[in-house]
Every structure is written in C-alpha cells, then in structure tokens.
Write a structure and sequence with these properties.
The complex is a heterodimer of chains A (566) and B (79).
Chain A lengths: L6 E2 H11 L4 E4 L6 H8 L4 E4 L3 H15 L3 E5 L3 H15 L4 E7 L15 H5 L5 E4 L6 H13 L5 E7 H5 L1 E2 L23 H13 L3 E5 L1 H5 L3 H11 L3 E3 L14 E4 L6 H9 L2 E5 L5 H4 L10 E6 L13 E4 L2 H7 L8 H13 L13 H10 L5 E5 L3 H9 L8 E2 L10 H11 L4 E7 H4 L6 H7 L4 E6 L4 H10 L15 H7 L4 E3 L6 H10 L4 E6 L29
Parallel strand pairs in A: 2-3, 2-4, 4-5, 5-7, 6-7, 9-10, 9-12, 10-11, 12-13, 13-14, 15-16, 15-17, 17-18, 18-20, 19-20
Antiparallel strand pairs in A: 1-8
Helix pairs in contact in A: 1-2, 1-6, 3-4, 3-17, 11-14, 15-16
Chain B lengths: L1 E9 L4 H11 L3 E9 L5 E9 L5 H10 L3 E6 L4
Classes of the chains: A alpha/beta (566), B alpha+beta (79).
C-alpha cells in the first residue's frame, strides 16, 4: 500500500526522481522552475549547476551514455528551455535515454506570449520520443514514472516534461503510482523477440555465406548485448566492422575487427563491405556517414538486419531478412555454426594489416593520431574518452584504443560541437571509477568553455586534451578538397591563449608543443589527481584520412599525406 | 500515389500535432484530414490522406506506430 502524503507538485517531482533511482541532475535555475529548485533544497538529489543549459543537457547525455541509465536535466522556461534543444536532439539521434524537465509559465498565461514563454513542447516534437505538458499536480508523479519508462524502453531516447509554475506550486496528495502503466502495448516500448522461424532462416542465411561481414552499431551496446555479441562473433569467425557508435563493441586489436566503416573508416573495413556477400547488420541504421552513396553500399551483399526499432528495417536498405528484435535476444538465441569463410577472414585480416594506419608521419609537429594512440593504448580499459566534433573526433575513432563501448563517447548522429566537456562532466560523475579525458579541438572547445567553471566548482577530475590547429580543420579540409580551396571563415588564428583560459577558470594547464614533450604530457594526464588541460598545437594543414567524398561509394575513398611535410 | 491512413491516438494535448508534424517531416504531404472521437474511450481517430513522390508508405506507418500515444495505424489504400 502506497503512503499518501500532501506536498507541492515540485516536491512530488523531486520525490519521484529519487524514487526512480536518480542521484544526479544537471541544470540551471530561473523563474518558472524556481519551485523545483526550492524542493531540491531538502532533497537528496545531487544537483550540478552548469553555466549554460546546453551544458546540462549534454552532461545528462554523457551520464546516460556511460551508464545506460536515464540522464536528467532541468531548465527554466523560454531561453532556458531552448538552450536544452541541442542536447535533447543529440540524445534523440544517438538513442540516449534522457528526461528533460522544463519550467513553464503558469497555465493561466500559457498561450499569451508571456515573459519567457515558448512552446517547448512544440519545438521538441521532432526530437523527443515523447513529451508531456503537466496540467495538474496530481499528474506529476505518474508523469515522471512514465517518462523514465519511455526513455528506457525499446529503443532509448529523450522525453520532455514541461511543468507550468502554478502546477509546481499546487498541492498534491496523490499516492506514488505503481510502476508499470498503460502503454505497454506500444511498439515504441517493447523489446520484441524474434520468432524461431526467423532465427532458423538467419542461421541458414549465415551458414550459406562465403563472405559474411558483421556490421555493428550502437544498438548492440545500448541493448546490453556486448558480451552476447562477443560470443556470437567468436563463434562465427567472420570479420566485423563498426559504426562510430559501435566502437568498442569488440576491443581494439581484436583479430576479427577491421575497424570503423564509412566516411572516415578504415580502408580494410570499407573494402570488405564492398566485397561481402552477406551483411549481418546489428543495431545499425544505415546512416549516410557509414554507407557513403547508398545505392553503391555493399553491392554484392544480401542483408540480414536486426533492430529493436521496426522503422529502421527497410528504411534505407531493403533487407533480405528483417528481424524486428532486441539485438541481445537475437544474439542469445540464434544458432551459429562456425563460418565456412576462413579464406575470406584471412583475406580481410591481410587487407587490414596491409592498410593499417602509419604513425611515422614526416612532419615536425605533434601528430594528433599518434598522441591519441599513445594515450589510450597502454591501458585500453582505463579511459573514457569524450570527443568534441571535427578532425580530432575522427582521429579518436580511428586511433583510440577501447576495451568497452561505453569508453568511447562521441556525438555521432547530431555531431554536436561543444559536446566534449559537458559530456565528460556527466561521464565522470556517473563513473567515478574511470579516468575521463575530453579530446577537443580549438573550434569545439570554445563552444562550451564555460563548463570549465563547473569542473572547477565541483572539482571534477576530468582531463582535457585540446588539439589546436588554429582553425576549423574539418571544414578547411573539405574546402580544400571540394570547394577549390576557397577558404571561408575557417581561420581561428586569433584564438585566446588556452592555457591562460584554463588557469583563469582555476584549471591547471600545460602546453605540449613538440613531439618530444608528448610522453611527459601523457604522464601528466595519467598522474595528475585533479583536472588538467593539455594544450597541443598541431599542424594546421593536418587532415583526416581516408575520406570518402560526398556521393561516392565507400571503396572510392581517397587518401593524402597525413600532414604538411616540413 | 495517395494513401489513406486511419490513426487511433490517445486524446492528449499535442498528439494530433505530433502526428501531423511527423508526416510532413518524413516528406509526405497531407492532402486531406478529418478527426473524430475514437471508438475507444479517450481516443481520437484521424483519417489522413497523404501523398509522396517516391517514399514507401510503410516507412511512414512504421514511424507513426512508434509514437507512444498511438494505439493503431491502419493503411486503407486507394488508387
């Protein structure tokens, strides 16, 4: 029997967050959300005061990505709510469970263009799994429970709760609701199981393949199927390629792993995709960054596609066998005999060895890919790496060493510059047992630089490696290759002194300018107990290779010199 | 090609907009729209006629079925 107790709507909200197991929320107060902040004073929730609401949403995103739990962020109405949008969209495109709670103007003035009133419910419609406007204090507790259930069930995603101020102030005497509610029949909330007939057909399809290739996305780790996948792969003995969000599903260096596919994928991965006769697609969505020109993607392959989200099956590539299933359930139940494709696997391994990345670059400046490799390869299970967006993000994907998927935290679908620092804050608070490092670039870094103050305030021991090429490197690379070197607004040579910036925020910082200084910088990153920023100037002409040009097939990737030859 | 959909959805604020926005975002055009109370309690029924240049109507119905408050999507094809 649930206990009935009178409290304010805001207190009911906080109580329900606690009941759902939330320990940490990220937010920023303001007028319409003040009742909730008042309720926080007496709660056991740890509130992390960020310095911009986008930081709150992205920190919640980082928290959720490394745990699989729901990340929670709070903001006031109007600009507070709109500042959450990028983080909510980030969660949406990468299927991250998140509950975003926004204050709203009182119900009596909703729709009157009141001060700090925006239709955040309407604005977020395309980027949330579901959303609520709470119109009665009695609805608050059940709404929070529904929001958590929706965020986590089936394919995870963000949920918005818009809470008018008068509703937050109003009294409620509703008993805490029981878990489990009415919408359990919704396809969005179910984890379907494949029929035995489909599993048998999958077994036959895989058994007949001579050149099978496993194409793994973020859905495998999101469904908690990493171990099941590793057993499946070991049994199958077929080569594996991953998407950006699938990195870590097999540990770096695994003998079956050919690396990431797609625009900046490895040559071996992209060539294998083009030659495969069966593509076993697990928790992927055929994103254009992975497929290149879609109608030239895996041209000889039959497609076996397994996904928890039915709408992904056939959305972009019509599968020969579509299995609407939780990937974990599929992997645990499908019967696999060892592949008859040993020659194919040998060929792929040989291709991988022949096309491996080189680190003996000819330039005199620090080579960022080598820095990343050296930092992460010594203890591949040590670091959680959160990335910003740009060349450095691709270098992390290509050259970072990871033992588990949650260690690689990257904004894949949305490509959010400014993601790295707040995501690292969330990741470190969620996983204090792991070392967390942000790999950033000089463009991305300044997009959420204010969160250095959050790191300082809570003494969060995250490390930051800031690769500085005094420009927007990836845009510059594209303008070089595809816009006839007509450089437009990519020069950031008037950047501030980043060491001074960090120290002004109270973050210790150092510069690493020469290759000979890299081992010392890595040592400092490993041994400094608190936060540390390492500023690493790199060659402004450094590029990311390989690269699949737009509208080209993945095998049409191009390569160039890693950096300017001094 | 035009297709007619019958969608039964919970009668909550914003649900009609959510469905219509999704249809347009997925590059289908709404040609006709009618709403009536649903047969089930606290539901609305939408009759929507949509068209698209080349997109498969199933790609749209799959997306609509994913919406949490949608109870049922029926495809009632017409020439």
């Amino acid at each position: 029997m649930n206990e009935t107790k009178t409290c304010s709507g805001a207190e009911a909200l906080v109580r329900e967050l606690e009941a759902m197991g939330t320990t940490t929320v990220f937010g920023y107060p303001g007028g319409a959300i003040m009742p909730v902040y008042d309720a926080l004073v007496d709660s056991g929730l740890k509130h992390i005061l960020v310095r911009h609401e986008q930081g709150a949403a992205l920190a919640a995103c980082g928290y959720a990505r490394v745990t699989g739990d729901v990340g929670v962020c709070l903001a006031t109405s109007g600009p507070g709510a709109t500042n959450l949008l990028t983080g909510i969209a980030d969660a949406w495109l990468d299927s991250v469970p998140m509950v975003a709670i926004t204050g709203q103007v009182p119900t009596g003035v909703m729709g009157t263009d009141a001060f700090q009133e925006v239709d955040i419910f309407g604005m977020t419609l395309p980027i949330v799994k579901h959303s609520f406007i709470v119109t009665s204090a009695d609805e608050i507790a059940p709404t929070v429970r529904k929001a958590f259930e929706i965020a986590l069930a089936g394919r995870p995603g963000p949920v918005l709760i818009d809470l008018p101020k008068d509703v937050a102030f109003a009294s409620t005497s509703s008993a805490p609701p029981e878990l489990s509610w009415i919408l359990q029949g919704s396809p969005a909330l179910t984890a379907p199981e494949a029929s035995w007939d489909l599993l048998r057909r999958a077994t036959v399809m895989i058994g007949h393949a001579r050149r099978p290739l496993v194409y793994v996305g973020g859905g495998v780790a999101r469904s908690g199927a990493t171990e099941a996948f590793r057993e499946f792969a070991a049994q199958l003995q077929a080569p594996v390629v991953t998407t950006l969000n699938g990195i870590g599903t097999l540990p770096t260096g695994d003998e079956l792993l050919l690396g990431m596919l797609g625009m900046h994928g490895t040559r071996a991965a992209n060539l294998a995709v083009q030659e495969a006769d069966l593509l076993i697609c697990l928790g992927v969505r055929f994103d254009d960054r992975a497929t290149g020109r879609l109608n030239a993607f895996a041209p000889h392959a039959k497609v076996l596609h397994v996904d928890i989200d039915q709408s992904e099956l056939g959305k972009l590539r019509q599968p020969h066998l579509a299995i609407h299933s939780d990937v974990r359930d599929f992997l645990q139940r499908v019967v696999i005999q060892e592949s008859k494709a040993q020659q194919w696997l040998s060929d792929c391994k040989r291709s991988s060895a022949a096309n491996g990345f080189r680190y003996d670059h000819p330039g005199k400046s620090i080579y960022a890919p080598r820095f990343i490799r050296d930092l992460t390869s010594k203890q591949p299970d040590r670091w959680i790496v959160t990335c910003d967006v740009g060349q450095h993000q691709m270098w992390v994907a290509q050259h970072g060493h990871f033992a588990e998927p949650f260690q690689h935290v990257s904004s894949g679908g949305l490509g959010t510059m400014g993601f790295g620092i707040p995501a690292a804050i969330g990741a470190k608070l969620a996983r204090p047992d792991k070392d967390v490092v942000v790999v950033s670039g000089d463009g991305s870094f300044l997009m959420n630089v204010q969160e250095l103050a959050t790191i300082r305030r809570y003494r969060i021991p995250v490390k930051i490696v800031l690769f500085d090429n005094s420009g927007l490197g990836l845009v510059r690379q594209w303008q070089t290759l595809f816009f006839k070197e007509r450089f437009s607004e990519v020069d950031l040579s008037d950047n501030p002194n980043f060491v001074d910036v960090a120290e002004t925020f109270g973050i210790p910082a150092m510069r690493c300018s020469k290759p000979s200084e890299v081992p010392g910088a890595i040592e400092a990153l490993e041994s400094t107990p608190g936060p540390l920023l390492v500023h690493v100037p790199i060659d402004a002409q450094a590029n990311v290779w390989p690269l699949v040009p737009p509208n080209k097939a993945n095998h049409e990737m191009i390569e160039g010199v890693a950096c300017k030859i001094d | 090609m035009q297709d007619r959909l019958k969608i039964t959805v919970a009668d909550n604020p914003g649900e009609i907009v959510r469905i219509l926005a999704l249809i347009e975002r997925r590059r289908f055009q709404i040609r006709d729209l009618r709403t009536t109370p649903g047969d089930r309690p606290n539901t609305i029924e939408l009759q929507v006629r949509v068209s698209s240049d080349s997109r498969n109507i199933r790609s749209l119905t799959n997306q609509i079925e994913k919406l949490v408050a949608v109870h049922l999507v029926e495809l009632q094809n017409e020439a």
